[in-house]
Amino acid sequence: MQTTISSPASFSGVGLHSGRMARLVVRPAAADTGIRFRRIDVREDAQIVAARWDAVRPAPLCTRIENDSGVGVSTVEHLMAALAGCGIHNALIEIDGPEVPILDGSAAPFVRAILACGVRRLQAPVRAIRILETVTLREGTALARLEPAEDFEISFRIEFADAAIGAQEKRLNMANGAFVRELCDSRTFCLQRDIAAMRARGLALGGSFENAVVVDGARVLSPGGLRYADEAVRHKMLDALGDLSLAGAPLFGRYVGIRAGHALTNRLLRALFERPGAFEEVECDAAAARRLPGVGIARSDFPAVA
């Protein structure tokens, strides 16, 4: 069955890139609503922004969705990952600004609130997208691929010259709360030498050691260090889940990312939906539904490190 959050969950904080304060409320929604944002700070007829792959617009270092009126919401990927990883199919997200709060730089605050509020089942079947043919995109040394698989899997590899990150690789079957246990508390990261350049471009204005992991060569500058030795690749997988959730339905297939980012993953979804024979929409029976992200999670699955 489809799901929604049982009661509203509220958040407030600065946007990572804009540095602006925003208040956000995740509210329950009816079956077949999907995930929608409502910009309550703009005129009423332009407020709704659908969280879909075809609403994504180019934006540096984050995922931005926008409606036909030009009203958008940026940095949606961590919240989208939390909703997908907790198995939430329908929600209305009210926000009073143009960027989702970064909070601690991970999806953990969103997941914690969802688990506290609870998940409500709705009287409607879950429809999923099954990958039938491999679709691959390359951009320089980066690669993003969707390929057939029985469950939903994410495999990611990154390589950085900085020894604090280096080469990292991880692969996970995302069924049954793996996101909550393994990925949700992994924070966004950046290189110390890039910060000045980002701020000169109007980015990372709300960034701090409290909401991002900052590395400089072999050193981790953020207080407390890393939550995991491979926190960086875990966060890239978190981002990928958030971006893939914009497909509008859970996936049955394997996503492979090598140095991939938000834009490449969105282009991969666009390439998939341009090839009707590469996927099919399926109604999940009970057995298939049990293999979806978020099914069967409990508060005990939440990592102690967060």
Characterization of this structure:
This protein is an alpha+beta fold and about 300 residues long. It folds into 2 domains: about 5-120, Ribosomal Protein S5, domain 2; about 125-300, lpxc deacetylase, domain 2 (lpxc deacetylase, domain 1, 2-Layer Sandwich), CATH 3.30.1700. The protein has 7 helices and 20 strands. It has helices at about 75-85, 110-115, 180-185, 195-200, 230-245, 260-275, 285-290; strands at about 5, 10-15, 20-25, 35-40, 50, 55, 65, 70-75, 90-95, 120, 125-130, 135-140, 140-145, 150-160, 165-175, 190, 215, 220, 250-260, 280-285. The strands form 5 sheets. Strands 11, 12, 13, 14, 15, 19 and 20 form a 7-stranded mixed beta sheet that branches. Helix 1 packs across helix 5 and helix 5 (about 230-245) packs parallel to helix 6 (about 260-275).
